[in-house]
């Protein structure tokens, strides 16, 4: 097929397509949602790790308060207690570190996906194509074959726009195939996330309950049962009220965090299925998913 | 009993041992009994800590296995991006070549 004929076909196809540029938005949004999910997961790990260490510290303080300080082996007994719990906390930190590395790997995957979705390459390639068409045009004029190869300014622009459409469509197809191929792997990881978030939710519930109990005994019951009533010390009474409110709120927040993060893992799995099956409702579902991630961030802020 | 059931049982036991009523009771006991209570709670805390961490480590291991697969997929994505970049490079080179031919053509025509 001659170059002229090819250009005619190209321009004809452009007219047929109505200059439409199909959007890569759903894929872009999906990649962005994946990155946000990874960030939220990391934040949940931070809260879970800090709460577990605070809980073990609170328990150490409480258990230590009952130890016989006049006994012979007091110091050794308490140092051993401290070391045993330290070892457990160190192992927990290491386990969270492995989980963070996994989340970082997942985030890199979504970042790479996002770069492939990015229109930079599409526009750069189509610009290069347009420049080539312009050069051919200029060359044909110099060679005196202008009648055969000549392209108007408008048609050159149309070629650029059409090439962007063609490359964009090809990229969409590549992306869809890519995500379809990777879906089982990502889905398996998401299933493990759901299991992990179930474990974290269970641990968090316990940690917060124990931590809350200890803080309640220390900050609420202690001053409440003290020989001097709170009514006689207004400053202490105000602090007591603030502590009481904070403790009651923290307990309900952690339940919300555990539920929301587990739901987010499930939702990303659903999004993944939607990407490879049907793109029509994808953007709407991504919006809902992002709202779930926002809810997680809101609860995390309550912990700060 | 499954590990999860043991964890649940120990969590419940530890909560009861640390409850305000039990603590108040032991606060009025002689130092030796108080110390026994403190040691018992320490043992429960330690056992529970070990089991909980093992449960986390087991899931972390599964995640590590997934990470390897995801890493190889990320590398494939990078390769695809490179392919797209090289297509653009070829077009840019072609464009330069045509411009060069154009400049030479001026002398030929």
Could you characterize the architecture of this molecule?
The complex is a heterodimer of chains A (304) and B (109). Chain A is 88% helix and 0% strand. With 304 residues, chain A is an all-alpha fold. Chain A is elongated. Chain B is mainly alpha-helical. Chain B is 93% helix and 0% strand. The model of chain B has no long low-confidence stretch (mean pLDDT 86). Classes of the chains: A mainly alpha (304), B mainly alpha (109). At the A-B interface, helix 2, helix 3, helix 4 and helix 6 of A face helix 1, helix 2 and helix 3 of B.
Topology:
The complex is a heterodimer of chains A (304) and B (109).
Chain A: H1 3-17, H2 25-65, H3 74-117, H4 119-142, H5 146-149, H6 153-225, H7 234-277, H8 282-303
Helix pairs in contact in A: 1-6, 2-3, 2-6, 2-7, 2-8, 4-6, 6-7, 7-8
Chain B: H1 3-17, H2 20-27, H3 31-108
Helix pairs in contact in B: 1-3
Quick overview of this protein structure:
The complex is a heterodimer of chains A (304) and B (109). The relative contact order of chain A is 0.13. Chain A is mostly helical and 304 residues long.
Whole-Å distance between the termini of chain B?
93 Å
Mean pLDDT of chain A: 79
Radius of gyration of chain A: 31 Å
Number of strands of chain B: 0
Fraction in helix of chain B:
over 70%
Terminus-to-terminus distance of chain A: 67 Å
- Bulk shape of chain A: elongated
Number of strands of chain A: 0
Oligomerization: heterodimer
What is the helix/strand order of chain B?
Answer: HHH
Mean pLDDT across residues of chain B:
86
What structural category do the secondary elements of chain B indicate?
Answer: mainly alpha
The string of secondary-structure elements of chain A, in order, is: HHHHHHHH
Largest sheet of chain A: none
Helix tally of chain B equals: 3
Largest interface: A-B, 72 and 61 residues
């Amino acid at each position: 097929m001659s170059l002229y004929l090819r250009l005619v076909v190209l321009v004809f196809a452009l007219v047929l397509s109505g200059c439409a540029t199909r959007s890569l938005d759903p894929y872009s949004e999906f990649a962005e949602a994946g990155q946000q999910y990874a960030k939220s997961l990391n934040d949940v790990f931070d809260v879970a790790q800090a709460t577990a260490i605070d809980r073990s510290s609170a328990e150490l303080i409480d258990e230590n308060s009952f130890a016989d300080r006049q006994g012979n082996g007091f110091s050794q007994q308490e140092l051993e207690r401290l070391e045993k719990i330290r070892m457990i906390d160190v192992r927990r930190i290491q386990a969270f570190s492995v989980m963070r590395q996994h989340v970082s790997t997942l985030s890199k995957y979504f970042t790479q996906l996002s770069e492939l979705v990015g229109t930079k390459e599409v526009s750069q390639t189509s610009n290069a194509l347009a420049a080539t068409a312009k050069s051919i045009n200029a060359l044909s004029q110099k060679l005196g074959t202008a009648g055969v190869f000549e392209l108007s300014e408008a048609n050159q622009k149309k070629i650029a726009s059409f090439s962007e459409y063609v490359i964009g469509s090809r990229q969409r197809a590549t992306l869809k195939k890519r995500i379809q191929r990777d879906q089982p792997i990502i889905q398996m990881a998401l299933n493990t996330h759901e299991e992990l978030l179930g474990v974290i939710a269970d641990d968090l519930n316990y940690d917060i309950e124990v931590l809350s109990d200890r803080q309640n005994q220390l900050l609420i019951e202690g001053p409440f049962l003290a020989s001097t009533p709170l009514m006689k010390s207004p400053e202490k009474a105000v602090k007591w009220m603030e502590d009481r409110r904070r403790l009651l709120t923290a307990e309900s927040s952690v339940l919300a965090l555990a539920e929301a993060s587990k739901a987010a893992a499930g939702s990303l799995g659903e999004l993944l299925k939607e990407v490879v099956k049907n793109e029509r409702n994808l953007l709407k579902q991504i919006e809902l998913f992002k709202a779930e991630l926002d809810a997680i961030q809101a609860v995390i802020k309550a912990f700060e | 009993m499954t590990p999860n059931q043991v964890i649940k049982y120990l969590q419940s036991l530890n909560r009861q041992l640390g409850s305000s009523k039990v603590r108040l009771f032991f606060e009025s006991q002689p130092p030796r009994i108080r110390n026994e209570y403190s040691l018992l709670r320490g043992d429960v805390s330690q056992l529970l800590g070990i089991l909980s961490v093992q449960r986390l480590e087991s899931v972390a291991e599964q995640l590590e296995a997934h990470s390897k697969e995801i890493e190889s997929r990320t590398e494939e994505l990078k390769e695809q991006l490179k392919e797209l970049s090289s297509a653009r490079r070829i077009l840019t080179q072609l464009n330069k070549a045509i411009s060069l031919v154009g400049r030479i053509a001026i002398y030929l025509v």
